[in-house]
Amino acid sequence: LAKTTQPISMDSYEGQEVNITCSHNNIATNDYITWYQQFPSQGPRFIIQGYKTKVTNEVASLFIPADRKSSTLSLPRVSLSDTAVYYCLVGDMDNYGQNFVFGPGTRLSVLP
Amino acid sequence: NAGVTQTPKFRILKIGQSMTLQCTQDMNHNYMYWYRQDPGMGLKLIYYSVGAGITDKGEVPNGYNVSRSTTEDFPLRLELAAPSQTSVYFCASSYSGSSYEQYFGPGTRLTVT
After folding, report:
1. Residues on chain B touching A59 (C-beta within 8 angstroms)
2. B4-10+17-96 in CATH: which number?
3. Distance (Å, rounded) from C-alpha A73 to C-alpha A60?
């Protein structure tokens, strides 16, 4: 079960690009990297998922180096509404149970 | 699609009481999950199900029970409520295993006093 480590909190200002890095030194060959976003009083929401290199969608980009021991979630030009907790998770797509662990996440505060 | 719905939104229980948290999804997902989230913490998996009639324990199953008689519904039963069960409970579903995108419900905030 790959354990992840990410900063507890980050501050940013509106309009800036925010990069949140997650370490997963014990990532296994079949593991994918997934990021979720959680607003206060809501359930987590899937943001992006990747296996290697770079993945981009309309919300964020995910950068994964060749050794896959870390990953970086990039949020372009954040706004106040991006204030949330961001979780990095690592898991095998074929593991159907409890391989996904939501740690404390990174609490991002976007300031005006 | 309504996605994942949970009832009730809020509930206060006295110690020793029992209740059932309801969860329904309309996406025809096989996999469903129950998590609890304590203040300032991440989510902990209580129980999960890979299909109707099949359930299994997660990280923190003690004090809870589940059943899965249909694809759509996955109720969570609390027996003999304790203050340690004060938490926010989230139900989620996914097309396949937990590494696939999970869709979460709005949560149930439970207080046991």
Report:
1. none
2. 2.60.40.10
3. 7
Instruction: Find the angle CA(B60)-CA(B62)-CA(B63) to the nearest 5 degrees.
Output: 125
Residue B8: asked if its preceding bond is cis (omega within 30°), the reply is yes
Chain A CA closest to residue B99: A93
Cβ-proximal residues to A66 (8 Å cutoff; 6+ apart), any chain: A52
| Structural domain boundaries in chain B | 4-10+17-96
Q: Please report, for residues A47, A55, A62, A108, B13, the alpha-carbon distance to residue A58 in angstroms, rounded to integers and kept in the order given.
A: 9, 11, 12, 19, 42
Q: Do A92 and B99 touch (CB under 8 A)?
A: yes
Mean pLDDT (chain B) is: 94
d(CA B52, CA A77): 44
With CA atoms as reference, the chain A residue closest to B46 would be: A98
Give the number of other Cβ atoms within 10 Å of residue A44's Cβ.
26
B56, B65 contact by CB (below 8 A): no
Q: What is the maximum span of chain B, computed from C-alpha positions, in angstroms?
A: 37
Instruction: Return the exposure string of B101-113: e unless at least 16 CB atoms fall within 10 Å of the residue's CB, then b.
Output: bbbbbbbbbbebe
pLDDT tens, position by position, A69-105: 999 999 999 999 999 999 999 887 666 555 667 888 9
8 Å CB contact between A53 and A60: no
CATH of the domain at A86: 2.60.40.10
